[in-house]
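Quick review question:
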């Protein structure tokens, strides 16, 4: 029986070998038929090794491809094109000097505001006695905070009388080759910039099909005079912010415009779209839920993570200092809450920002997800001396006596 078992085993082995040979000969693989085609043992071994090596390599790259797929890498495509219809950004104008009127000067006169006395309180050790510029800048800064603390208690009509007035300053305006006026701007009072005016803030945003001088926003401003004898700022000019419908925050794009200049501001708009997690670090905000995100949606503001981070830091200031930092937006649901204006309050708020701003991503990451779609504005400015003597001469002739007694330097 043992020989019969061996014979059966040999027959099975031969049948298996024949089956493999027939299968390999009909296979599209190049190596397997060679193994059975040649009778030489060494050639068979060589083709067998080739088959094994390439099989292992194929399996390796296949498995590696699976791991690469699970990493969710994406291919970025950058396309540059001109939009036929461009939605125009929001443009915000603020005077660099907030308190410029006689009414503003009266704020300081009524309480006999003494810069020397308040500075002795703020710097009792006179640590900045040899830093005259820093000394003066600090005096101006705290005078500015004092003015804001008083303005915070006023109504809107009183606030409008403290500084920049577009009704008085706007001499000419055009957009998209059509005339505009002060009624096309909306007023608001910012706790850091004072009276500000925004263009293009309606429910239906303005758009333009062409760029350049004729189709952009052109404004001619004059009469930025300062009738307040008390120094509350160390420079003069105009702040111009360019942003979307997000909050006007410290992270908003801005340029500083000199007086006596013909200034051109060029705007480059970049839109970025990314695929949400797991293909990138950004989040799909459709179903994302956090208190700050819900707040920004409730006030119908375009979401930006930077704005959300500032709101998060603001909430830290409110919890630790009992006031809100006036330089950034606040949810300020508690209407009795006041800005941080006193020396102790400003010191506390700056410490909160300093201690937490570097780790804001970790501290506020869950509340403030990274958006996948965002708009970035890059600004570039150029300027010319203004006005020319010839233009000034023509202006005096045709200005209905408005500039008759004014010198070129005064204009």
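Suggested answer, residue by residue:
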């Amino acid at each position: 029986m043992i020989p019969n078992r061996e014979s059966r085993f040999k027959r099975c082995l031969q049948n298996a070998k024949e089956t493999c040979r027939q299968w390999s000969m009909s296979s599209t693989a190049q190596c397997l038929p060679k193994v059975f085609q040649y009778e030489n043992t060494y050639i068979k071994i060589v083709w067998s090794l080739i088959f094994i090596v390439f099989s292992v390599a194929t399996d390796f790259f296949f498995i590696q491809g699976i791991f690469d797929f699970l990493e969710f890498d994406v291919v970025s495509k950058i396309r540059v094109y001109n939009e036929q219809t461009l939605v125009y950004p929001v443009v915000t104008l603020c005077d660099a000097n907030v308190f410029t009127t006689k009414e503003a000067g009266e704020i300081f006169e009524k309480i006999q505001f003494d810069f020397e006395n308040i500075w002795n309180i703020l710097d009792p050790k006179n640590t900045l006695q040899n830093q005259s510029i820093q000394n003066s800048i600090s005096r101006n800064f705290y005078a500015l905070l004092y003015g804001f603390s008083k303005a915070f208690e006023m109504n809107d009509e009183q606030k409008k009388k403290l500084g920049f007035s577009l009704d008085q300053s706007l001499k000419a305006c055009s957009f998209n080759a059509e005339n505009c006026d002060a009624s096309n701007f909306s007023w608001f009072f910012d706790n850091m910039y004072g009276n500000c005016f925004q263009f293009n803030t309606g429910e239906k945003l303005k758009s333009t099909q062409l760029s350049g001088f004729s189709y952009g926003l052109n404004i001619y401003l004059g009469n930025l005079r300062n009738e307040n004898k008390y120094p509350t700022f160390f420079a003069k000019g105009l702040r111009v912010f360019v942003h979307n419908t997000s909050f006007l925050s410290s992270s908003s794009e801005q340029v500083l415009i000199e007086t006596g200049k013909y200034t051109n501001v060029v705007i480059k708009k970049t839109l970025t779209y990314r695929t949400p997690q797991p293909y990138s670090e950004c989040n799909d905000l459709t179903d994302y839920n956090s208190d700050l995100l819900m707040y920004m949606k409730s006030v119908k503001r375009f979401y930006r993570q930077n704005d959300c981070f500032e709101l998060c830091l603001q909430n830290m200031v409110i919890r630790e200092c009992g006031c809100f930092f006036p330089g950034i937006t606040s949810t300020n649901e508690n209407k009795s809450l006041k800005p941080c204006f006193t020396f102790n309050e400003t010191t506390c708020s700056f410490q909160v920002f300093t201690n937490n701003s570097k780790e804001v991503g970790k501290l506020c990451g869950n509340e403030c997800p990274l958006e996948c779609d965002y708009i970035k504005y890059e600004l570039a400015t150029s300027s010319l001396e203004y006005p020319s003597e010839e233009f000034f001469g023509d202006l005096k002739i045709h200005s209905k006596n408005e500039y008759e007694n004014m010198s070129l330097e005064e204009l």
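Why it works: The mean pLDDT is 80. Residues 86-397 form one domain.
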